[in-house]
Design brief:
Layout (H helix, E strand, L loop, with lengths): L5 E13 L5 E8 L3 E7 L1 H4 L3 E8 L7 H10 L4 E8 L2 H5 L6 E2 L9 E8 L4 E3 L1 H5 L37 E3 L3 E13 L4 E5 L9 E6 L21 H9 L3
Antiparallel strand pairs: 1-2, 1-12, 2-11, 3-4, 3-6, 4-5, 7-10, 7-12, 8-9, 10-11
Amino acid sequence: MATRMGLLGKKLGMTQVFSEDGERIPVTVIQAGPCHVVGKRTLEKDGYSALVLGFDTRPERTATRPELGMFKRVGLPPQRVVREFRLPPEEVDSFEIGQSIRPTDVFEGNAPVDVSGVSKGRGFAGVMKKHNFGGTRATHGTHEYFRHGGSIGCRLTPGRVFKGKKMSGQMGGDTKTVQNLQLVQVMDDDDCVLVRGSVPGANGSYVTVKKAATRSVYKRVGMGQDESRSKNPLKASKKAAGGR
């Protein structure tokens, strides 16, 4: 299992920042701290090593008695979100119970991150909205079949519907992870990070921001390559408008 440090946060919304060369960058603002160390998991006691973090306080009346006792022992108010982060034992030992962790303690600017959250719920959706089906031609002889999914099987063979068949159903509301997003800026004073890319979830939802699992340096697709200008003036103007 991947052992990567991360933080809990709340998706606040979108804004824009400008780079040194004047490029306008759309970013998502995530309040990623301060997170508090609620507990530890050790190899001797639990069979694995992990760091338990809490984020965003909540009223004591909403917590159960076992939760109140746990937070009282560590000297913290009840936390709304509690998650575990698998880490090596030596890294877990470097943190203390009750310690506050801020974004600057974990992340560096312009680094890739993985963001996990619950996607927006879309309710019961048809195959055209959920799976991008093209639909049936609206020509003569077609009746009430414009947005249907079509045939889903046969009678004798196979005599059933295969698992994973793309059909209508509930859309959204699933835990999704978007990898290799650009961490544009870390705002130390506000405990916020600015992330470029598609962050799952609605505004106000809780997300998990981790160091990227597959990359150590952020690199945009198509950037940093020497492209020859096309002789077609239309294509050349489009590239110039895109800053390439």
